[in-house]
Amino acid sequence: MEINFRRIRDHSLIEVFTSSTVEEITGMAGDFRVRIKTGPEYVTRNCTACGECAAVCPVETNDPFNYGMTIRKAIALPHELAYPARFHLDDAACKMDSCKKCVDACLYDAIQLDASPKTREIKVKSVILSTGWKSYEPENLEDYSWGKSRDILTNVMMERLGAPNGPTGGKILKPSDQRPAQKIAFVQCAGSRDENHLPYCSAVCCSASLKQALYFTRQDKEHMADIYYIDLRISGRNEDFLRKVEENDQIRLVKGKVSAVGLEEGKPVVEAEDILSGRKIHAAYDLVILATGMVPEIPVSPGLDLDPDGFIIKESLEHGFSAGGCCCEPKDVAATVRESTGMVLNVLQENT
Ligand code: SF4
Ligand code: SF4
């Protein structure tokens, strides 16, 4: 990401609109008009990311980048690699009616609490839709006790927990008491391939759980991980992960759908049937990781045709539009980058 940010920043023909949404696209191929709403941008380009504002801000709020596992100030750098590297004011948390401490602390005159949204229109020849995905809401998984224990997490939360710049510096600690986790269960297809939730396979969750189990067990020889799966869907180079997992004595692959996650004496407990042995499993864990699936993120719908699962049907797009990435189907980063490169080349060829 860092390399790509640098390329974007240094490129004279690329303009990035952050804090912005596309409100409307009109016109036709070769002559589109796109209305973009930006802001309010409470923190201007003058910001040097010095942090003086956050130091004096009295308001703490959940940090969305760490999925609420940490707190941050109402004005903060969203994350280490934020682009642009500029502080952001969360106006839902900020008490700007009665407080202006950050304005007084900022030596660069970078904060404007009276900022309002701006709308502008740009002309473009083609439009590429690549709006990505969000994680399936675990609240919908009634049998998995979501919200009843801080030690039941989603796979994207686990990714932050294992990150060197995450809430615990990469150590896998239980959010409930900050003690090291020794035994983790991964619950595959938490929502995916289920007619009541997401009927499709989300493509990346099996590989993600294998990766997470590997980095967890590498941290300590005593760490144990059980991965409960219907069937493991691993393809391409990710088969390396599967081979490493199969060779790892600290990881157990259990073929069986988890029927419930409960709580006993404050600890998450997994109920499942091991299909291969016919054995019923009732096991307690320090952490349970729900491998929640991918939901397409399509904030604006400029006359788009969506399939029953909410993904864009590429074939239905009007001339001048193209779409790729996870707003069309679940896919991993490598496949998304390949597809996006192809789309951009097509668009450039069409318009030169
Ligand atoms: S807004 Fe001002 S005080 Fe806050 S980080 Fe930016 S320059 Fe520093
Ligand atoms: S105005 Fe808002 S962001 Fe600034 S210091 Fe006060 S509460 Fe924090």
Give the SSE layout.
Layout: H1 2-10, E1 20-28, E2 31-38, H2 52-56, E3 60-62, E4 71-73, E5 75-76, E6 88-89, H3 101-105, E7 118-124, E8 127-129, E9 133-135, E10 152-154, H4 155-161, E11 183-190, H5 205-219, E12 224-229, H6 239-246, E13 251-255, E14 258-264, E15 267-274, E16 279-284, E17 287-292, E18 294-296, E19 321-323, H7 333-350
Parallel strand pairs: 8-19, 10-17, 11-12, 11-17, 12-13
Antiparallel strand pairs: 1-2, 2-7, 3-4, 5-6, 9-18, 14-15, 15-16
The chain binds iron/sulfur cluster (SF4) (2 copies).
Summarize the structure.
The protein is built from seven helices and 19 strands. It has 352 residues and is α/β, with parallel strands linked by helices. A five-stranded parallel sheet has the order 10-17-11-12-13. Strands 1-2-7 form a three-stranded antiparallel sheet, with no helix packed on it.
Describe this structure in words.
- The protein contains seven helices and 19 strands.
- The chain is of the alpha/beta class and 352 residues long.
- The chain has a five-stranded parallel sheet. A three-stranded antiparallel sheet has the order 1-2-7, with no helix packed on it. Strands 14-15-16 form a three-stranded antiparallel sheet, with no helix packed on it.
- It binds iron/sulfur cluster (2 copies).
